[in-house]
Amino acid sequence: MDKRKYEGKTVYGCLCGYAAEEGGKRFLFDEEGAYTAAQALSRVRGLASQLWACGVRAGSCVALEAVRTKEAVLLLYALQAVGAVAVLTDPRLPAEEFLRAGGTGVRAEFVLSPRSGAWELFAADGKAQRADFFAPAAFFEEGKDARAPAFIIFTSGSTGGAKAVVLCQEGMILNAADTLERGWYLPEDINIALVPVFHVFGLSLVLTAAVARHAVYFPAETDIVSVLHGIARHGVTRMNGVPSLYLMLAEASEREGVALPSLRTGLIGGGPCTPEQFAYIEQKLGMTLLSVYGMSECVGISLSDHRDSFADRSGSVGRIYPLNRAHILGEGDAELPAGQEGEICVESPFRMLGYYGIPSEEGFLRTGDLGVIDERGFLHITGRKKDIIIRNGNNVSAADIERALLSLPCVRAAAVVACRSEREGEVPCALVVLREEAREGALRASLARLLKKHEMPEKILFAAALPLTSTGKTDKQKIREMFEA
Question: What global pTM score does this model have?
Fold first, then answer.
């Protein structure tokens, strides 16, 4: 990938190029209708004119209640066209309430909300202006600084408090361009928007579409059976998702007897997936999964190649993106050789500008994740620094215990957290979802053959499902609260 081709490129610029060269191609669609690239650009220009007329300028913070619809994406692109900062909020709450509850200090000058049944722009003084998606374009000043703050997204808070992450357009576009070859993007692709747009995985999906120049389908219903039939009906070829989503889709495909011959590939990340689960998903859905590793603070760190073997795709999170440089650091920040475990740190053009009000420090980004880069360059995630449980002075890896639990035939899903102990400092506790009925004693006996004594969970609870955050990740904060209650 020629980095120079995309440096300084804006989201609006990418859409303009798409419309100029392939304007008649379908870009965004749902059950009710579709926008071609040219139609989408026309709508974006009209919306950008309205935003400008209401006082939205380059650098204005505009909270967008980020529902997964083609109209929300048009507004997102329009905000970028004028150079505003899109503050992406979880639409299950009014934007003001969401920002207040997050405690990150982010304040919006304007709010874009569909709550009245139509999209409206609310100013700080309470005045509202309805968005007209069919209004012709008028004057607006195009925002051209691709390195300025463009998006604010919020970490899920699955292991603690949320943070407000500031990203720029250039970083998102460079990541999209660096993904195209390894990620097996084809011009005829149809991606399905299932991951929330207010999460970096979903934001990346709707922005990559303008770079890859493919279509995006927005399903009205997201229960798994409706999604299954939507993929089959619309010939969806690819998707982004967390392991739990793929597993539910594979199970539904088997249960409902619905094959998905069009589904070719998908990016999978955001949580652990065993090789057995990986194989089950690929077999039932007839697709090639590509492991991806990234985070809100750096959208892409590593990615599998569709030409990699099954063992490499299922047993690692791929190789470091070509535009990135990774370091595995040990004690005293010494850089470790291949095969040794340490903290994953990365230098990347995709990284955040900083947290809201706190610019990024120079140098590499510390991910907080532990990993190993093997002799062939494949990255293996081994755990999180914050998931290291210190029990009687012994370091215990929550990830190791989870892997041991998931290797048992009776266990469908598992999550391990650290809980306070007056006697031992911290102890591991496990929440387990069973495939089949099993007694705790038998489970512990099987686990004892795989773990050392100090690694054995102090407590085991059983549940019908693991609690998940809004982005589909395991909510370890909620699990910890369950044990501490």
Answer: 0.85
